Amino acid sequence: MRRLVPDEERLTIFTIFAHSDWLAHIVFAILLASIVATIMVWAAQWIAFARRREAWRESALAYLSAVVVTAPLLAFVRAIYEVAKVCMGLVNVTPAPDLVMLAPAFAEAAMFLLVGALSAALASGARGHLLIMFHAPRHGAQA
């Protein structure tokens, strides 16, 4: 018969993060900072465009392009590192641990993949939106 684990013993995103090592905290902070910075860059460019100002367009697009490329790679490297730690742990423990013991590490790896993909998706969407805005004819402009 299966039963749910008591609430205080359940695995959550916060417990995954709390039990991560310092390197995981740094990578997670970088990915979250890239999400916040992406939103700020997109909003600043949108405001500048609405006010008909030429505010560092190329730099904004370059930053967003860099996030699109690097965020998923950084997340992927961290996830692979976590899976490699699990594999080394499996080899070095007898008898082999069950899935319940391995699940937190797999959840941490999945969390990094999720945040990296979210960061890249937001940056890609923001970059696409800005490119459309920058290349669209302005209302009231003379042809």
Protein architecture, described:
- Helix content is 76%, strand content 0%.
- It is elongated and about 65 Å long.
- The termini are far apart.
- By secondary structure, the chain is mainly α.
- The chain has one domain (22-135).
- The protein is built from 4 helices and no strands.
- The mean pLDDT is 87.
- Helix 2 packs parallel to helix 4.
In short:
With 143 residues, the protein is mainly α. It is 76% helix and 0% strand.
What key attributes describe this structure?
single chain; 143 residues; mainly alpha; 76% helix; elongated
Determine the strand fraction and express it as a percent band: under 5%
Rg, rounded, reads: 21 Å
Q: What is the terminal separation in angstroms? A: 74 Å
- Unreliable spans: none
Q: What average pLDDT do the residues reach?
A: 87
Work out the count of structural domains: 1
Largest sheet: none
Structural class: mainly alpha
Question: Helical content, roughly?
Answer: over 70%
Characterize the overall form. Answer: elongated
List the helices and strands and how they pair.
Blueprint: H1 13-18, H2 22-50, H3 57-92, H4 99-135
Helix pairs in contact: 2-3, 2-4, 3-4
